[in-house]
Structures are given as C-alpha cells and as structure tokens.
Design a protein that fits this description.
9 helices; 40% helix; 291 residues; two-stranded antiparallel ribbon; TIM Barrel; 8-stranded parallel beta barrel; alpha/beta; globular
C-alpha cells in the first residue's frame, strides 16, 4: 500500500515552507503529494458539506487553499520522483481544453506521475461566484473528462458534445503515458457510478473501515455488473486517525488492506504547528512498519 500526503498544499504555501514540506515528505517515504481545491470560500454558505456531521466545511474564510496545479508544479521540482495528485479538482468549474493542456504539462514535468482526483462540487455559492452553472454539473463533468481524454489521445482530434465542441485540433504536449489516471471522489451513488463508468480509481469520503466496507462492496458489484473487473478500479482512502500509536496504526491499516485499499491518504493537517514535520517522520515510520 502506498501512502500519500493529502491536502499538503494547504499547510505549506510559501516558498520556503513548501520546499521543506516536499523534501521532508519525500524523505519520510510518502509516495505522493496532493493539493485540494476551492477557488474561493464564500462568507455565507448554505450548501451542506457532505463529510461532516453538521454539514459545515472544516475551514475558515482565511484557510489557505492554493491553486493545486500551480502548487504541484512547484512540488515536481522540489520532490522529484513523487507522484502528484489533486484531492480533488472541481472539474465543472474549469475549461476542459485549457485543463487538458495544464495537466499534460504538469505530467511531463514530473515524468508521468500525475493522478487527477476529480469531483463535481458541493458548494453552489462557489459556482455562482465563478459564473459556472450549478445545474447538470455531473453531466458537464462526464463530458469534460471525455473531451480531455480525446485531446490526450493524439493529434488532430475532434469532439462534439453538449458542453464541449471543437473541430480537429492538436493539444501538445500530451501526457507521458498517453492519458492521466482519473480518480473519482465522493461516496454518493452518483460518484460510485461515475467511478465505475469513467474512473481509473475511486476516492470515497468515508475513512472508517466499518462504514467503508459496504460502499466498497457496492462499487465492486456495480463494476462487475457493468462488465468491468472491479480490481481495475484502485481504491484511495483517507486515514482518519493520524496520531495513533504504532499498534493502532497497524490495526487500522490491516483493516483497510483487507478492503483492498491501494493508497492511504494521510491528511497533512495532522502535521501543522511546532514539531509538525517531526511528527510526520514518526508517523511515517509507523506506516512503514504497518504496511
């Protein structure tokens, strides 16, 4: 099982601390670095955040959320050899033709190591501020993915859809390995179905093994029913107890391993504050022992 440092961009966003974080993460044995995304945080939010009991986003208006692709380009130079991912990119808020170019460029800079974690978005107020329609954002996301994969497939390609329409064009450079793995975020029925239809991986919001197990079963049953090998959909799961003892870490990871988790996503917020990066080294040692 590989382990990644999730939301890393939000705890180190200036030059010196970002450089140190990237280098320390590589030294601690993390295999990947991840950046989250919100372009803005509205002062008033009525939309319900899906991953907390009270429906409130665990952030303040001043919580730093750097642009993930720009931050990851910095990380590509600071920690060569680590995979780079988004957790998650709100795809329907972006222009898919421009995004295809940005992702392919990043993928080239890091030698083919980009993983695109995607979501359809949950905060209508953010969509309103950006000027992107909230309605049918799921269908828009699906078509944007198809358009990007078309642009990555070769020169002189064309695409004609409801939301994206272009004649023969060439987008160069293209990804190192012809395409970029897409990891679908979310644990709703729609997200599970999207992972089965379009995803190379799935990143549910649930991190508790007991609650996660039925979701994984559902995903695999739907994949099999669709004629797809369930094992072809990699499983990426947040680690919900990063300050546990070595024994607790081993037990928790053992349960996730039994579920077939491919990558453990360790929230970087656990390593904020004095001595945080030293705690990261200690925790990473626990992970290596458990894995």
């Amino acid at each position: 099982m590989e382990y990644g440092l999730a939301f890393a961009s939000s705890i180190a966003f200036d030059h010196d601390n970002a450089l140190e974080l990237c280098r320390r993460a590589a030294g601690a044995g993390f295999g990947s670095l991840w950046g989250g995304e919100h372009v803005i945080i509205p002062t008033e939010i009525s939309s319900r955040y899906p991953y907390t009991a009270d429906g409130k986003i665990p952030a303040t208006p001043e919580t730093p959320i750097p642009d993930p692709l720009i931050w990851l380009a910095f990380a590509a130079a600071a920690a060569p050899g680590l995979r780079l991912g988004t957790c998650i990119l709100i795809v329907p808020q972006r222009n898919p033709v421009v995004l295809a170019k940005e992702l392919a460029t990043l993928d080239r800079l890091c030698g083919g190591g980009v993983d695109l974690g995607i979501g359809v978005g949950w905060m209508q107020e953010e969509f309103d501020a950006i000027g992107v329609p909230w309605a049918r954002r799921g269908a828009r996301t699906d078509e944007y993915i198809a358009a990007m994969r078309t642009l990555w497939s070769g020169p002189e390609v064309e695409f004609h859809g409801e939301f994206v329409d272009f004649g023969k064009v060439t987008c160069s450079p293209r990804p190192v390995h012809a395409t970029i793995p897409i990891i679908v975020g979310g644990d709703t029925d729609a997200a599970i179905n999207r992972a089965v239809r379009l995803g190379d991986g799935w990143y549910p919001g649930q991190s508790d093994p007991a609650a996660l197990a039925p979701l994984v079963t559902t995903m695999r049953e739907r994949a099999a029913a669709a004629g797809r090998d369930p094992s072809s959909i990699s499983l990426h799961v947040n680690y919900g107890m990063p300050r546990g003892s070595a024994e607790e870490v081993a037990d928790h990871i053992g349960r996730l391993t039994e579920l077939g988790v491919t990558r453990l996503m360790v929230p970087a917020f656990a390593f904020v504050g004095p001595g945080g990066l030293d705690r990261m080294d200690t925790f990473a040692e626990h992970l290596r022992t458990a894995c």
